[in-house]
UniProtKB/TrEMBL annotation:
Ranges where the Tyrosine--tRNA ligase SYY-like C-terminal domain occurs: 199-261
GO MF term list: ATP binding; RNA binding; tyrosine-tRNA ligase activity
Originating species: Candidatus Beckwithbacteria bacterium CG23_combo_of_CG06-09_8_20_14_all_34_8
Similarity section: Belongs to the class-I aminoacyl-tRNA synthetase family.
EC class of the enzyme, as a word: ligase
Keyword Transferase: no
Gene that produces this protein: tyrS
Designated name of the protein: Tyrosine--tRNA ligase
GO biological process: tyrosyl-tRNA aminoacylation
Lineage: Bacteria, Candidatus Beckwithiibacteriota
Record flagged with keyword Aminoacyl-tRNA synthetase: yes
Cellular compartments per GO CC: cytosol
CDD domains: S4 (cd00165)
Length: 265
């Protein structure tokens, strides 16, 4: 704590409020938390502890990485460099990541990863091609034209490229085929996760309880939302009543959302 406070003496409030984000919030009369001022101090402390010469981060971290350079210079004599990369944002300018709850987990099964990418807004297609994939720069102009003509096919190409890059071409082909069959053609996939009827807590559960217990919904509120959205079916029959009682039968197939299935056994 003493070391952190000592470093904090090298910063001024004036420096902090020069940040564009803080200026905007001051104009909008929105609060700025104290910990937001402390964050760049801790970034500086980390840089000193690791004796870094170059620090890399997203463009949104430029202020945090650069505001303490004069402190590092006075303590270690080094001129630390800050190198930034563009950030990937959605159509509303919100950074895609865990903080916003829209992160894409590349460790997910290929069909889930493919589906997550297909759920991105069309406005994210081009930034994703530029920042994530390994497609040649010379092809980007053609891709931009493809987006105008057929955004769905271009997004599938994007999803395939990303899955191929992190999980291999075979899994990318499988994920694309799975998406086209289950989402676009609404066919039931050949391989479906199963659930044993004997593990249900009730012999005739309501549909919401069934969704939760089979793992198709993380909570009852989420299950109700799926039903309200018309995204729940049993053996291709839509379920619209969240209170509907279900008599589970072997080989029944439950769908929740576009890509989640369970087969009762």
């Amino acid at each position: 704590l003493e070391e952190t406070l000592q470093l904090a003496m090298g910063f001024t409030v004036q420096q902090m409020i020069e940040r564009e984000m803080f200026q905007r919030r001051l104009k909008e009369n929105k609060p700025i938390s104290l910990h937001e001022f402390l964050y760049p101090v801790l970034v500086t402390k980390d840089a000193l502890a690791m004796d870094v010469d170059i620090e890399m981060g997203g463009f949104d971290q430029l202020f945090n990485m650069s505001v303490g350079r004069h402190v590092i210079k006075s303590v270690s004599g080094k001129d630390k460099l800050a190198v930034t990369t563009p950030i990937l944002a959605d159509a509303n300018g919100v950074k895609i990541g865990k903080t916003a709850g829209n992160a894409i987990n590349i460790a997910n099964p290929p069909e889930q990863l493919f589906g997550q990418i297909m759920s991105l807004p069309d406005e994210a297609i081009m930034p994703c091609f530029k920042l994530i994939t390994l497609v040649p720069t010379s092809t980007l102009t053609d891709i931009e034209q493809q987006i105008q003509n057929n955004p769905m096919e271009t997004k599938k190409e994007l999803a395939w490229e990303i899955v191929k890059m992190v999980q291999g071409e075979e899994k990318a082909d499988f994920a694309k085929d799975y998406f086209e069959k289950t989402v676009q053609s609404r066919a039931v996939p050949e391989e479906i996760a199963t659930f044993e009827i004997s593990k249900l807590s009730q012999t005739e559960p309501d549909i919401v309880t069934l969704l939760v217990e089979t793992g198709l919904a993380p909570s009852k509120s989420h299950g109700r939302r799926l039903i309200e959205q018309g995204a729940v079916e049993i053996d291709n029959q839509a379920i619209s009543d969240p209170n509907k009682l279900i008599v589970p039968q072997p080989n029944q197939i439950i769908r929740a959302g576009k890509r989640n299935y369970r087969k009762l056994i």
